[in-house]
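--- STAGE predict ---
source: upstream dedup step, 1 unique chain passed
mode: sequence only
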Amino acid sequence: MSSRYKVYDNQIPHFVTSTVVGWVDALSRDQYKDIICKSLLFCKDEKGLLLHAYVIMPNHVHFIISATPGNVIGNIMRDFKKFTSKRITAAIENNPHESRKKWMLNMFAYAGKNNNSNEEYQFWQQEYHPIALDTPEKTRQRLNYLHENPVRAGIVWLPEHYKYSSAIDYHCDKPGLLPIDRLYL
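--- STAGE serialize ---
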């Protein structure tokens, strides 16, 4: 892994991205996004995650995160991805209304078969590409990029209208779906 994508200081906010294998729109249903939300809450409560900003898109997530002293971003992301991978895959398998179930599970099985780290399915791509936000300019740029994602995708007109994002916290100073550890720039 390149040094560009390593965490050297876990207390500095980092912009991270996790993408569903094959860019499959597996997170298009609220019930799957809710699994991610519950996992983020668990990581905040139990694993030392500081969640500064987030957006959950249909095929990827962006977070700005750091860790409390003694905790490691890489370990938090590993556990988050492992847990959500199993839970979302199971939710897809057990959802009688999931019209793309067979296709998605085949995609995850194919990716899993080609990766020795997986038992059966691979839901997330391997990396999470942490980028240290060590200047106010970098932080503002990534925060705007993250919150503008649903607008660029044509899901909403304004960032603060997207339910699965921290944009409302930053744009309207109202609490969003998940509690965040707000960055003040």
